[in-house]
Amino acid sequence: MMRKVMIIVNPGSGDNQGEEYGKQLADFLNGKFDQVDIKKTEGDNDALKFAQEACQDHYDSLFTVGGDGTINEAVNGIAGQDYRPTLGFFPAGTNNTFAQLFNISEDIDQYIEDLDLEESHSLDIGRCNDQYFNYYVCFGKLIEATTGTSSEEKSQFGSFAYLKNILSALPKDDTHPIKIVSDSESFEGQASHVFVLLTNQVGNLVFSNEQSNLQDGQFQVYILTDESTGAKLSALKDILFGQLEDNDSIKSFACSKLTITNSDDNETQVDIDGNDGPYLPCEIELLPKHINFYVPKTQAVQ
User: Fold this and answer.
1) Which one of 118, 152, 167 terminates a domain?
2) pLDDT digit string, tens, across residues 203-244
3) How far apart are CA 143 and CA 78, in angstroms?
4) Is residue 125 part of a domain?
5) Domain total for the chain?
6) pTM
7) Cα dihedral across residues 259, 224, 221, 188: positive or negative
8) In this structure, what are the phi and psi dihedrals at residue 284, rounded to the nearest 5 degrees?
9) Which end of the chain, C or N, has fewer beta carbons within 10 A?
């Protein structure tokens, strides 16, 4: 049977080098597959539609060249299908927070050298109402600050590159009266931030030293219950040192299914993998080992 691979390219990614990166990846894959097709995005949901096409036409593999948004669209395109190709991704976006979980190189030559087509890993994903996610669902200004930090800043300053954006975001936070019901624990009260993570970190920020990875069938849920600036600074310190489970203003637990609802009439929108998600209420469910991903040689699943 002919082996087919599709490459979805965001031409504007990588400082408008996305198309060139796609060609380099295609040159490599031409020696591994019988058919290599490149699809270029031009607008919202193009990557989603191309990914659906890859499922319908039974492509063996699907690669994206772009940022977190392109990966998320591809995941949404294949997650609901009966047949799902193995997914790989070259991080050519501004932040590339998902790729950091696997230490995937942002250099195309190194990425190709590290790519192992003989091995893939079945990873958990989540579903929030009718949208899928491969990383997180949350609300609160801290996530905007962490995912809005550029790759250049992170490369130069490490975890402390997040400080400037986070500190500027803290005074702008609102608290929300919410109710969370899960298959393990419940919460009702005021919260300025809620993180529902498929692992225990966002980018290079490790929330907890507790063991967690993308194959354990559990969400890690963190709720910041105190709206004071002091509590937020304390939480920030513990995020930087991976000790959130010891913070008195943080409620944390693991679960595989939960609902989050507003306790008042205000509208609260969630963030999904760095993109606008639905407004509360949200029903969130983990889909264990739902999609096969190519992971670089020697890299463990985080």
Assistant:
1) 118
2) 667 777 677 889 999 999 999 886 655 666 666 666 655 566
3) 26
4) no
5) 2
6) 0.87
7) negative
8) -120, 130
9) N
